[in-house]
Amino acid sequence: MKFLSKYRRHKFATPMLIVIALSTLGFTFSAATASPAKSELAASAKSTLIAEGKEIFLKGCSSCHGLNGEGASIAPSLIGVGAASVDFQVGTGRMPMADMSQQAMRKAPLYTEEETAALAAYVATLAPGPASITNEEITWERDGSTADGGELFRNNCAMCHNFAGQGGALTKGKYAPTVMGVEPKHIYEAMITGPQAMPVFSDKTITPQEKLSIIKWIKSAESEPNLGGASLGRVGPVTEGLLVWTLGLGLLVAIAVWLTAKSR
Question: Where is the signal peptide (predicted)?
Answer without folding.
Answer: none
